[in-house]
UniProtKB/TrEMBL annotation:
Family listed: Belongs to the GST superfamily.
InterPro entries: Glutathione-S-Trfase_C-like (IPR010987), Glutathione-S-Trfase_C_sf (IPR036282), Glutathione_S-Trfase (IPR040079), Glutathione_S-Trfase_N (IPR004045), Thioredoxin-like_sf (IPR036249)
One Gene Ontology MF term: transferase activity
Gene name of the record: gst
SUPFAM superfamilies: GST C-terminal domain-like, Thioredoxin-like
UniProt keyword Transferase present: yes
Annotated GST C-terminal domain residues: 88-207
Keyword field: Transferase
Protein name: Glutathione S-transferase
Species in which this protein is naturally found: Novosphingobium colocasiae
Amino acid sequence: MAGPAFTIWGRLNSHNVKKVAWFAEELGLAYVRHDIGGQFGYTDEYLAMNPNRLVPTIEDGKLVLWESNAILRYMAAEYGGPRWFPHDPIDRALADRWMDWQFTYADCQRLPFLSMARTPREEWDVAAIARDVDRCARQLAILEEQLTRTLWLSGGEFGVADVPMGVYINTWFHLPFDKPEFPRLADWYGQLKDRPGYAANVMIPLT
Ligand SMILES: N[C@@H](CCC(=O)N[C@@H](CS)C(=O)NCC(=O)O)C(=O)O
């Protein structure tokens, strides 16, 4: 009898859960996902696995793991191999840094996202949103520059290092604020949109 499937715990309207569900599809991994967190609340069983009261968490055989980018690295190593995460230490480090860098970006996107996607329009703090959008744009200029030098954040081809910012860039392009033009970012986003796992798990209504 087949063992338990790779299990993802977390609601899909979470950026960090989207990363894991999308990447599972890129790897062709059979998985089950259970809604938990946010509007679904938590169970004691879940909090015993992840005491941070955050999503996502995965179970894979005897492994229980939280922290979305650590999960992505595990998935790439266990199920993907060098195609997804280069063995060469220099290539790997250059790709890997964009995964950690995403948390820097997430910090400035938090307020516009929570304010615009999860708050009635009449309650938006327009000045605060504009300040954070400006901060996000300054950070995205760094990504734009990188994408003039490599096609993907992972290097010459799409890989795991494109996933964290790949999720966040969908939100950047969808939230209704004025934004500067970033042509290479727009190209990169256009290519992500053609990936079925991205369309199914990331390009869903922002809620
Ligand atoms: N660094 C953590 C952050 C996890 C996190 O902040 N998750 C958010 C959703 S994106 C969360 O769980 N919020 C509370 C909730 O959903 O109940 C990771 O990358 O996994």
